[in-house]
């Protein structure tokens, strides 16, 4: 008896398996070694299915980037959506930001984006250009509530980002070890100290 078409949840699980396989291979081997054949084999799928669902390697990696961007945006929303003080909220965001950008997933995707203008566009759209407005909205709300004094929200966000990331991301991309949890906490605390020194009400 014919089994018929797979259920939607089965299709979703198979798609996730392909995205997982692509990300794992990107982290392990880098973008130059990533192939449709390798992803299909690791995911237990056929090359034809990968091409049918994603159109090819670039479409597959774009889907990985978009999925990771969704997860990142949700994490930022969670960090900014609590009832903590401005300091605690910003430190939580900065810890998450630095951990994300120097972590293996982000490093793998950034290296892939360096090989393709389209992937770079997808990464920017799903990353900085998507998350930035979330943080700017939080800062604007804190300013409206009288907790911060900010004339230019965009400049304030860029300062916070720069104080947090510094040169850490590029150094990890060039092969240095990622900062550990203690270093991330210390950097986030220092970044927020400086940021509040500029924007906190006195």
From TrEMBL:
<dbReference type="InterPro" id="IPR039536">
    <property type="entry name" value="TetR_C_Proteobacteria"/>
</dbReference>
<dbReference type="InterPro" id="IPR036271">
    <property type="entry name" value="Tet_transcr_reg_TetR-rel_C_sf"/>
</dbReference>
<dbReference type="InterPro" id="IPR050109">
    <property type="entry name" value="HTH-type_TetR-like_transc_reg"/>
</dbReference>
<dbReference type="InterPro" id="IPR009057">
    <property type="entry name" value="Homeodomain-like_sf"/>
</dbReference>
<feature type="DNA-binding region" description="H-T-H motif">
    <location>
        <begin position="35"/>
        <end position="54"/>
    </location>
</feature>
<dbReference type="GO" id="GO:0003700">
    <property type="term" value="F:DNA-binding transcription factor activity"/>
</dbReference>
<dbReference type="InterPro" id="IPR001647">
    <property type="entry name" value="HTH_TetR"/>
</dbReference>
<keyword id="KW-0238">DNA-binding</keyword>
<dbReference type="Pfam" id="PF14246">
    <property type="entry name" value="TetR_C_7"/>
</dbReference>
<dbReference type="Pfam" id="PF00440">
    <property type="entry name" value="TetR_N"/>
</dbReference>
<dbReference type="GO" id="GO:0000976">
    <property type="term" value="F:transcription cis-regulatory region binding"/>
</dbReference>
<feature type="domain" description="HTH tetR-type">
    <location>
        <begin position="12"/>
        <end position="72"/>
    </location>
</feature>
<protein>
    <recommendedName>
        <fullName>HTH tetR-type domain-containing protein</fullName>
    </recommendedName>
</protein>
